[in-house]
Design goal:
441 residues; 16 helices; two-stranded parallel ribbon; alpha/beta; eight-stranded parallel barrel
Length: 441
């Protein structure tokens, strides 16, 4: 059965194309540097937003019109697999991602849930045999069901910890079965509402214990995927333990896990934490911890996780600059953890949204590569910090001075002269590069 019979395979037609169902800037075969766009960007489709979500929000029921929703239960799960792989093929997408409950309904017990999952995993595996699309990462939903009301690994209830651990075990087995390149830990409820009833140390210790168990079990079964932590602040608990990359990195170091994990960084989560997307990418990159990306954006007027498809070319450029400086994403990719707007309820809107996101990151990639090739920002930074390349600055960097010597130096200063950071000039230069990319230069 075809769910998108009115849609042909999406092709690259160039910037002058007026076809809404064509790529204007993303040409998977075009080389940027020494790799193709497809090899660098490694796009992925988020199964939950694309095939499972109904576009409901806290103020209204779902609006999505999906031809597969005429089914229920396991029949619905199977129809979604059929629709998904048709979508993957027509979009020519290399990867997809999912949580367990995205692909298979929960049963009345963990045993029944695992049975449902096994059936759908087997079906997905069969479809993958004839598809170019691979599994970028999978994860387990340990946050939606009421059993996780107080958290999962950080729950005060040992039975919930055990249940969560059992689900993680199953997730690692599923990841191995489908050849996942990564496995993500997103602590949707790993946090607390108030310290008045919280043993923070026990909760953090237990979270560390579960991660160590996962590392050990992955080695035991020969699952060599990259482990990723996805930081998210505030939502849904008031205080998330995985607030941002910095706090997550400190956690990993404290529990001796920093050699086993990297970060899956989401743009909208970065802004919710009070950071820019590129800040989180940079922090992870300079510490060797940048693993993968959830590509989306938030709404500047709304203070929650809106998960919009990325269309801000400035943001995609600065993100790709960090990714290229990282040497790429390795086994990671750009997963569109994004959903169409509630008013965009038609099935075709799923294609329009992904085309917009893929084109936006293609532009960002080309501009970022030119900025790197021309050493635009490298020259700016090098010039700004030149005082550390000689004299007292070099002594500081090399650790060859102390407070007494610095005091003696400072007492001899008659004038301290700063220079402009020239931020507006820098942004103007980036604008020039963006416009040249559109013009095909």
């Amino acid at each position: 059965m075809s769910y998108f019979s009115n849609i042909d395979k999406i092709k690259y037609e160039g910037p002058t194309s007026t076809n809404p169902l064509a790529f204007k800037f993303y040409n998977p075969e075009e080389k940027v540097g020494n790799q193709t766009m497809e090899e660098i960007l490694r796009f992925g489709v988020a199964y939950w937003h694309t095939f499972t979500a109904d576009l409901s929000d806290p103020f209204g029921t779902g609006t999505a019109v999906r031809s597969w929703d005429k089914f229920t239960g396991m029949d619905l799960a199977k129809a979604r697999v059929e629709a998904a792989f048709e979508f993957f093929e027509k979009l020519n997408i290399p990867y997809f991602c999912f949580h367990d409950v995205d692909i298979a309904p929960e049963g009345s017990s963990l045993r029944e849930s695992n049975k449902n999952l096994d059936e759908i995993v087997s079906m997905i595996k069969d479809y993958m045999k004839d598809s170019k699309t691979k599994l970028l990462w999978n994860t387990m939903n340990n946050f939606t069901h009421p059993r996780f009301v107080h958290g999962a690994a950080s729950s005060n209830n040992a039975d919930v910890f055990a249940y969560s651990a059992a689900k993680v075990k199953k997730g690692l087995e599923v990841g191995k079965e489908l050849g996942a390149e990564n496995y993500v830990f997103w602590g949707g409820r790993e946090g607390y509402e108030t310290l008045l009833n919280t043993d923070m140390k026990l909760e953090l210790d237990n979270l560390g214990r579960l991660f160590h168990m996962a590392v050990d079990y992955a080695k035991e079964i020969g699952f060599d995927a990259q482990f990723l932590i996805e930081p998210k602040p505030k939502e849904p608990t008031s205080h998330q333990y995985d607030f941002d990359v910095a706090s997550g990195y400190a956690f990993l170091q404290h529990y001796g896990l920093h050699n086993d994990f990297k970060f899956n960084i989401e743009a909208n989560h970065a802004t919710l934490a009070g950071h820019t997307f590129e800040h989180e990418l940079r922090y992870a990159r300079i510490h060797g911890m940048l693993g993968s990306v959830d590509a989306n954006q938030g709404h500047p007027l709304l203070g929650w996780d809106t998960d919009e498809f990325p269309t801000d070319l400035y943001a995609t450029t600065l993100a790709m600059y960090e990714i290229l400086k990282n040497g790429g994403l390795g086994r990671g990719g750009l997963n569109f953890d994004a959903k169409v707007r509630r008013g965009s309820f038609e099935q075709d809107d799923l294609f329009h949204a992904h085309i917009a996101g893929m084109d936006s990151f293609a532009v960002g990639l080309k501009v970022a590569q030119k900025l790197i090739d021309d050493e635009v920002l490298d020259d700016v930074v090098e010039d700004r910090y030149q005082s550390y390349t000689a004299g007292i600055g070099l002594e500081i960097v090399n650790g060859n001075t102390n407070l007494r010597q610095l005091e003696e130096y400072a007492l001899g200063l008659t004038e301290i002269k700063n220079e402009s950071g020239k931020l507006e000039r820098i942004k103007s230069t980036i604008n020039q590069y963006l416009l040249r990319a559109y013009a095909g230069e």
